[in-house]
Amino acid sequence: MSWRVGLGHDTHRLALGGPIRIGGIEIPHDRHSVGHSDADALLHAIIDALLGAAGLGDIGQYFPPEDPANQGRSSAEMLQSVVEKVRSAGWQIVNIDCIVHLERPKLAPYWPQIRSRLAQLLQIPPEQIGLKAKTGEAIGPIGREELWMAQAVVLLSNPHTP
Questions:
Q1: Which of 34, 35, 90, 143 is most exposed, with minimal Cβ within 10 Å?
Q2: Torsion-angle region of residue 17: left (phi > 0), alpha (psi -120 to 50) or beta?
């Protein structure tokens, strides 16, 4: 059996007017993510972690921002497409661990919903998904609510390789 680890990261600016979309869930907030797609940095980080672990490139190769088809595109749809590519290449998702860096809102009340949505999109049990949140402690671009970012690490296995 082969094992691979992938690391993903994404950052999006914040602008006035909500809600914000995190992990495929709309969360009430006075700010929203700015981007070409729906700007869900958590799903984008997971996409890059999966693609990296499977040796399949990165998010920009599959969903380039200059392509008009990606304007406002659902990050959940993008993730589902990537999960299919990873599975078609013979890889299985073992687990995923994520960190969201965001000053506010507090995310703990939304973790069950986000975990459930991620489990659905990744086709794995919720207990195989780790979620954490960190603030900017009121300093830097995260603390000033100029941006938010997400990081993800994924472990893949391939039972058909030595």
A1: 34
A2: left
